[in-house]
Design goal:
Helices cover about 50% and strands about 10% of the residues. Helix 11 runs antiparallel to helix 12, helix 20 packs antiparallel against helix 25 and helix 25 crosses helix 27. The chain is α/β, with parallel strands linked by helices. The radius of gyration is 28 Å and the shape is globular. The structure holds nicotinamide-adenine-dinucleotide. Nicotinamide-adenine-dinucleotide binds next to helix 14 and helix 17. In the central section; belongs to the 3-hydroxyacyl-CoA dehydrogenase family. One of its GO terms (molecular function) is NAD+ binding. Pathway: Lipid metabolism; fatty acid beta-oxidation. It catalyses: a (3S)-3-hydroxyacyl-CoA + NAD(+) = a 3-oxoacyl-CoA + NADH + H(+).
């Protein structure tokens, strides 16, 4: 039999090697067609008396990344369409679709012939759930092998048997930890947990998998054997009595009840371990169907899975411009940002001329990479040779000669218009005529900087976030005159260094900083109202933000916030900043020298490690304090999210951001905006624009005009529109 996505070759021992190798895809993913073919292959293996058992593997360097975008999208589209027609039937249909994988994997598990999964590389989500249904699992010890059930990160959970098989193979605590964090396991960790049977050299993978079958592997899962016992004894043991109350508490602490997917994992494991296996699968299928219907799952899948991939693949790249092959770039300014930009570029195989005012400063910049490489080699994340190769790609320099053959220069010198002007002119004197100049400025509008350029069409902003090695987002900023070629090259560069870009039109603070300052400003208002600082910080975290707004101010630096406010006032006039906010910053910096984490004194005190940071007791003396009971924590949470979402809505209204996917993804990757909402605009769409506008009106009445809904929001509320409907990112493509 022939298949589109698989080959099945049976050897002389009667062992079928099923190799998954999808044409025209760099990674295997589950599609409806793939599942149909697996179904047919199971029938073939069962029906062919010449086949004793089967080994399932991948023909690509990775095993599989899990489900395909189009399949997930199709499921939601089907659900929405069916809901319009017949809501009850829609849920039944969703239940059936949600269970397709569950019962297909169960069919494989109970087909009567032994299956072994040979895991040769990254094995994620549904692909690992398929492996769990195989009777044997062998993994290669290659570094590229990463095993995970990461569904919780996109708002759902491992709903194809994952929550049932994992805790029947390993103890409940490790199972919960793995699934509620979505963390990746190495092959050896998976073996230690009992999730794979063998770890072997890459070239021994298939022979070892076949040997398991030759050695008489039983085609019966442990839980289908009579007398099967759950590892650790199940949930009615003294140990479990310790674990489960703590598990609920930890989940609450980590998620604040914001993630239905994470909660469902705990329920599935707890309830499932008390049920016979098939009933447990059905229970999991029910929870999966429920979670799929939540706004959180819908919004997170859209932003964190679909949109992120689409933006990463160049959704905003102008058509018709040849992909640029960036073998070498220049980075000017080898300070805090430039040094790290050089590192991430070299890590992507791009040669970098790293320039500073003198060779010593440039070499100091390269030393940052040397330290990062030494750390990675020490931790076994990089081989010595890889480290040496990376470092050999960075050439420190004190003049611009090395730029005569680059296609792109990233500028990261001091945030000073005059310094940048000198650098722009000096660089352009050497740079090839068709090369692109990208500035990493964080506050200076690109259009103004481009006035110093002889070729403003080739001038663009590429705004990195710190720490550059860790932050996944890069803002690409278009000046008034920036041309398509500059945008294409900038996006090719961002893709090459494996970050996600958002494309933003020029404005002060661009998109991310405009939004993030709202978060911090709201906290300054709260402080002035007498809200206890600890309550403000908790409200931020309970709303789903990674850090409280005062802690964030410390990280960014209180004196930098002061400097930025002063610059706003200097450029835009007194009205640009609330006087109370300016006064607070001045007091913190000028009176108390509290500059943030950088001088170990900000809204928090930062004692030497291992002591932990704690709120500065003096915060209480900044304003007359009220009691926590005087405030509603829910309202504080709303204020912190609504003010940011409103700013995002303003950027759409002003045409700064034009694609809602970018506003959403930018807000989550840029500053961790409550991921369960799907991002700033999904937060508004998720509750409905009308509800959001009503909420803004109430908050404006109580807390000030900055909560006033914008005209666009009022219009959208009146018309019953959503951001994704009004600014449909797919409409242009569909019309073309
Ligand atoms: P930094 O002070 O650490 O580094 C600036 C470097 O530029 C220094 O090494 C300096 O010697 C060098 N330099 C100054 N004039 C030069 C010249 N004429 N020629 C060559 N080199 C010169 O500053 P930074 O924090 O790395 O910031 C650099 C840029 O990145 C700024 O525009 C800043 O706004 C932007 N940025 C900073 C952050 C951040 O978190 N620090 C985040 C995003 C963007």
């Amino acid at each position: 039999m022939t298949y589109t996505n698989f080959t099945v070759e049976t050897d002389a021992d009667g062992i079928a090697l099923v190799t998954w190798n999808m044409p025209d895809k760099s990674m295997n993913v589950f599609t409806v067609e793939v599942m149909d073919e697996i179904d047919a292959i199971i029938d073939q293996v069962v029906g062919d008396t010449g086949i004793k058992g089967a080994v399932f593997t991948s023909g690509k360097s990775s095993f599989s990344g899990g489900a395909d975008l189009s399949m997930i999208k199709g499921m939601f589209t089907m659900m929405l369409e069916e809901k319009e027609k017949d809501p009850d039937n829609a849920i039944q249909k969703l239940f059936d679709v949600a269970g397709r994988m569950t019962w297909l994997w169960r069919k494989l598990e109970t087909c009567g012939k032994p299956w072994v999964s040979a895991i040769n590389g990254t094995c994620m989500g549904g692909a690992f759930e398929l492996s769990l249904a195989c009777h044997g699992r062998v993994a290669s010890n290659a570094k590229s092998v990463k095993i995970a059930l990461p569904e919780v990160k996109v708002g759902i959970f491992p709903g194809a048997g994952g929550t049932q098989r994992v805790p029947r193979l390993t103890n409940a605590q490790d199972a919960l930890q793995m699934m509620t964090t979505g963390a990746s396991l190495t092959a050896s960790r998976a073996k230690a947990m009992g999730l794979v049977h063998q770890v072997v050299e890459p070239d021994q993978l298939i022979p070892a998998a076949k040997q398991m079958i030759k050695d008489g592997l039983k085609p019966v899962a442990p839980w289908d054997e009579k007398g099967f016992k759950v590892p650790g004894g199940g949930i009615w043991t003294p140990a479990a009595a310790q674990l489960w109350p703590a598990a609920s508490a930890i989940l609450r602490r980590e998620t604040h009840g914001n993630y239905p997917g994470a909660l469902a994992i705990v329920k599935c494991v707890y309830e499932g371990l008390q049920l016979p296996f098939d009933t447990a699968l059905k229970m999991e299928q029910r929870y999966f169907t429920q979670v799929l219907q939540t706004t959180e799952a819908y919004s997170m899948i859209r932003s964190l899975f679909i949109s992120m991939q689409e933006l990463g693949k160049g959704a905003r790249r102008p058509a018709g411009i040849e992909k640029s092959d960036l073998k070498k770039i220049g980075v000017v300014g080898a300070g805090f940002m430039g040094a790290s930009i050089a590192y991430v570029s070299a890590a992507a195989g791009i040669a970098v001329t790293l320039i500073d005012r003198d060779l010593e400063a440039a070499a100091k910049g390269k030393a940052v990479s040397e330290k990062l490489v030494a750390d990675s080699v020490g931790k076994g994340r990089m081989t010595k040779e890889e480290g040496e190769k990376l470092l050999s790609l960075i050439t420190p320099a004190a003049d611009y000669e090395g730029l005569h053959d680059v296609k792109l220069v990233v500028e990261a010198v001091f945030e000073d218009r005059n310094v940048k002007k000198v650098v722009i002119e000096a660089v352009e004197a050497v740079l090839p005529e068709d090369a692109i100049f990208a500035s990493n400025t964080s506050t200076l509008p690109i259009t103004g900087l481009a006035e110093n350029s002889r070729r403003p069409k080739q001038f663009i902003g590429v705004h990195f976030f710190s720490p550059v090695e860790k932050m996944m987002l890069t803002e690409v900023i278009l000046g008034e005159k920036t041309g398509d070629k500059a945008l294409a090259v900038a996006l090719d560069y961002v893709a090459a260094i494996r970050k996600t870009p958002i494309v933003v039109n020029d404005t002060r603070g661009f998109y991310v900083n405009r939004c993030v300052f709202r978060y911090m400003n709201e906290a300054y208002d709260m402080l002035a109202e007498g809200v206890p600082a600890a309550m403000i910080e908790n409200a931020g975290k309970m709303a789903g933000m990674p850090v409280g707004p005062l802690s964030l101010t410390d990280e960014i630096a209180v004196d930098l916030a002061q400097k930025i406010m002063k610059a706003y006032i200097a450029d835009l006039g007194e009205g640009a900043v609330k006087p109370a906010h300016m006064a607070l910053m001045n007091k913190m910096v000028d009176e108390f020298d509290r500059r943030g984490r950088k001088n170990a004194k900000g809204f928090y005190d930062y004692p030497p490690k291992p002591a932990k940071k704690a709120l500065w007791p003096g915060v209480k003396d900044l304003y007359p304090q009220k009691k926590a009971e005087d405030f509603d924590i829910k309202v504080l949470q709303q204020r912190l999210l609504v003010t940011v979402a409103l700013e995002a809505a303003r950027t759409m209204e002003e045409g700064i951001v034009i694609d809602p996917r970018e506003a959403d993804v930018g807000s989550i990757l840029g500053f961790g905006f409550a991921p369960y909402t799907g991002g700033t605009l999904s937060y508004i769409d998720g509750m409905g624009v009308k509800t959001f506008v009503d909420l803004c009106d109430r908050l404006a009445a109580d807390y000030g005009d900055h909560f006033q809904p914008t005209p666009l929001l009022r219009e959208m509320a009146a018309k019953g529109e959503t951001f994704y409907g009004r600014f449909d990112p797919y409409a242009k493509k569909a019309a073309a």
